[in-house]
């Protein structure tokens, strides 16, 4: 047994200190520094168009579907400010949840390099099988038995090795690309948790040094198979001041309003004695579309119901591309005279809850964009509000819709499934009438703004 002790002892020593120092404390909050949603956009992108893309959860199925949308955006040229550019180059903000966080984070780090190696490094790799092997390797057993190490820590190390190459949010910030907002779920409150500096300010923690792979691991930490991923809360150790709106919302005592609940959840982070550690799980548990964060902050600030054209800073088009890889397969055990297994009941219960919340979120988005457009039509120079929905209900072929809806939520799919998902993402976006209308509107504006040539 000596060989076993020699093998396990290093792991025990590592395991005893492994996850506590993963996020760093900070002494001072600088609103002009860090990876923030209010960061300055690249001068290479037009101020006329604000384009946000949201990638839903759904394992490799969601990642491949989102990848196809990126491919189509790269292949689509639009006319803007007298120049022809790829639609992808005008994207300002990408959100990602669970499986959708992988292409979002990788594109944020590497830009168009994603089209060179993301398929090989992730989409066509049996990630699920490799993760299971990680758990079976003897040299990882000591880590897994340590109370100071979690399965998701092992997963994050694997993602670093195969995909993210130890990149941090400082690396994301150094690029000139769109803001990447990765979403997880706070296990204690059930609220969305975003990996942006505004969220980390509440913890008096510096996001810049935090690993991208750990954020993605948290975003995709499915409860049960994966453990929560832990952050340390340093609240009270910096000069952070709670925003006034939070205290106002709490004082209103409107306990069943979204604003009150959001305020209470955020305020809870400031009490580090009660919440020394923040446990994060899959972002799909709180919002499988990953739109609640940007929708309730950036979008509502930019276009409140009483907005005027001057409030939008010259914005001509607000574009929200919702890439939803949710499935709605028929339940097989409904057709047979047998009681469903416990796993089937648990899986179906979670799926139903997530899908119902997703439907409500989409309805809220639709109603809001319609109301914004109605207000804008009263202005002398209307602004276009474009909600583009890309999902598995859109392919025209019924057989293809059925095939897509029967794909599992896992981290391994066949090459055929990956190819069909990519093509579905591309063709669905290409055929979307709102997307086509946006391209036509930009072309018409460019033609109207072109100088008249006098013969």
Characterise the protein shown here.
By secondary structure, the chain is of the alpha/beta class. It contains 18 helices and 12 strands. The strands form 3 sheets. Strands 2, 5, 6, 7, 9, 10, 11 and 12 form an 8-stranded mixed sheet that branches. The longest helix is centred in the last third of the chain and has 35 residues. The radius of gyration is 23 Å and the shape is globular. The N and C termini lie far apart (94 Å).
What's the layout of helices and strands?
Layout (H helix, E strand, L loop, with lengths): L1 H14 L8 E2 L23 E7 L3 H17 L1 E4 L2 E4 L4 E7 L3 H10 L3 H10 L3 H10 L4 H5 L5 H14 L4 H6 L4 E8 L5 E3 L2 H5 L3 E2 L5 H8 L9 E4 L11 H9 L5 H11 L8 E6 L1 H4 L4 H11 L14 E8 L17 H35 L7 E8 L6 H8 L9 H17 L1 H17 L6
Parallel strand pairs: 2-5, 2-11, 5-6, 11-12
Antiparallel strand pairs: 1-8, 3-4, 6-7, 6-10, 9-10
Helix pairs in contact: 2-3, 2-4, 2-17, 7-10, 11-12
Quick one: overall form?
Answer: globular
Report how far the terminal alpha carbons are from each other. Answer: 94 Å
The biggest sheet, with number of strands, parallel, antiparallel or mixed sense and barrel status, is:
8 strands, mixed
Enumerate the spans where pLDDT stays under 50 for 5 or more consecutive residues: 1-20
Return Rg in Å.
23 Å
Number of E strands: 12
Structural class: alpha/beta
Individual helix count: 18
- Range of helix content: 40-55%
What is the ordering of alpha helices and beta strands? HEEHEEEHHHHHHEEHEHEHHEHHEHEHHH
- Report the sheet-strand fraction: 5-15%
Give average pLDDT, whole number: 83
